[in-house]
Amino acid sequence: MNNDAEELIRKYDIPVPRYTSYPTALQFEQGFSTACYEDLLEQIDRKESISLYLHVPFCSTLCYYCGCFTKSTQNYELLRTYVDALCKEIRMVSETIGRRQPVNLIHWGGGSPNYLKTEEIKEILDLLRESFIVQDNAEIAMEADPRILDQDKVNAYAAMGINRVSLGVQDFDETVQKAVNRIQPHDSIENCVSWLREAGINKINFDMMYGLPHQDTRIIQDNMDKVAALSPSRLALFGYAHVPWMRPRQKMLEQHPLPNINQRYDLFAAAQEKLYEHGYHAVGIDHFTREDDGLYQALLEQRLHRNFMGYTTDRSKTLLGFGASAISSFSGAYTQNAGDIPGYYKAVNKGELPLLKGYALQDDDLRRRHIIEQLMCYSRAQLQDIRPESLKIYEADGLVRWEGNTLYVTEQGKPFLRVICSAFDAYLQPKETRHARVV
User: How far is CA 254 from the centre of its chain?
Assistant: First the structure.
């Protein structure tokens, strides 16, 4: 790392949103009415293909780094109760829409969706196919914990039509795994990949992390070598966000050495260099893909998008989220379900949509959302009437440059892309603590 990079890190390593939406969920309003949510559902264009997200907020054990809305349990009856509630919500939403809407993508997120029994996953997918028109070429993706994945499950998933699986790998090093409470030997990941490919599921993602306890450049480079040897079609490389005031379980990591800011910068740079050596291409701020992966093709063809599931090829204007805390996105609004599981149960068991809050976008929001998405996807955006003063500072520091009305993020500026996007965020409060730091 050179002195210029160190100076930029000191100046710009601040907490800002990941911008999977704009405005962010912090701006969603409690007063958003159920009637408005129902109107949004009823007004979906009957010809529009939509996307569905299913949130399963349970894991068999908790990883200490986890910042997600999830809980661990060994009482499987809690999961069965959740499945029943999820099915009730799906029926209510479908009935409110009033017809079987076409669906081109289904994504299972968590938590650990594969913690559910196989027959319960089938039960939910069968209900979705009954309630919606799931297209023959629809992508059905699942996030999976490799520790509780086996060949029988994989074969069953393939038979159900699941055609993309994202494995939560995070790190291959045993010392790091012990520190974060996620023991999964390399052989177990290798077995999962083999089972998936044998079952015909060739769209395989890895979720990896940097900034975990004990990680150094040697470990991170070894991780990327092991990733390349298993050859997933794409991987996400997320920076660990240490927010113990929000997720108290993360305090367990403080007994171990955590990389400092400069070391985190070096970890990402080392990982990126290794991935380039192995033929992967960068997509956005934290994704890497093989050349034949659809996400990379979307980048080249300028069809890339960003939503609550991250970078995607999905063009749907409507994403319906099911489950506790799930967020739905419409062309002009967002809604979010009750975040606490008891509150979610209370609503659906009364036959009510489990709405907690929402947000209706204004014209200015739509303009800013488009700029932020363009920057997050392509590191450039055309600007007309919105030109924040802070762009002059970024330009002076070599983070951005201009060509006419088009703002380009430089190679030096790409590690700070979220900061640049925050210049267009009309709602971001100074010293906001509920977001991850940039580096």
Answer: 25
Q: What is the pLDDT of residues 159-192, one digit of tens each?
A: 999 999 999 999 999 999 999 999 999 999 999 9
Report the length, in residues, of the chain.
439
**In sequence order, which residues have a C-beta less than 8 Å from that of residue 291 and are 6 or more positions away?**
279, 281
Cα-Cα end-to-end distance for the chain: 13
8 A C-beta contact, residue 206 and residue 227:
yes
- Distance between CA atoms of residues 116 and 342, nearest Å: 19
Distance of CA 311 to the CA centre of its chain: 8
- pLDDT tens track for 269-298: 999 999 999 999 999 999 999 999 999 999
* Bridge-based pairing state of the strands 355-360 and 333-337: antiparallel
Residues contacting residue 418 through CB under 8 Å, at least 6 positions apart: 16, 17, 18, 19, 285, 376, 438
247 to 32, 259, 434: CA distances (angstroms): 27, 19, 11
In the predicted structure, residue 409 carries a pLDDT above the cut 70: yes
Which pLDDT tens digit goes with each residue over 33-74? 999 999 999 999 999 999 999 999 999 998 999 988 788 888
pLDDT for 399 equals: 97
At 436 the pLDDT is 76
Contact by Cβ (8 Å): 107, 50: no
E strands present in 361-439: 380-382, 400-403, 406-409
Query: What are the start-end ranges of the E strands in 36-132?
Result: 50-56, 58-59, 71-72, 102-110
Whether residue 120 contacts residue 83, with contact meaning beta carbons closer than 8 Å, is answered with yes
Instruction: Name the nearest CA neighbour of 57 among 351, 345, 281, 306.
Output: 345
What mean pLDDT comes out for the span 249-277? 96
How high is the pLDDT of residue 434? 67
Tokens of 96: 């409110």
Q: What is the CA radius of gyration of the chain?
A: 21
**pLDDT (0 to 100) of residue 431:** 64
Q: Nearest to residue 361, comparing CAs of 52, 21, 39, 97?
A: 21
CB atoms < 10 A from the CB of 108, how many?
27
φ, ψ at 345 (rounded to 5°)? -60, -45
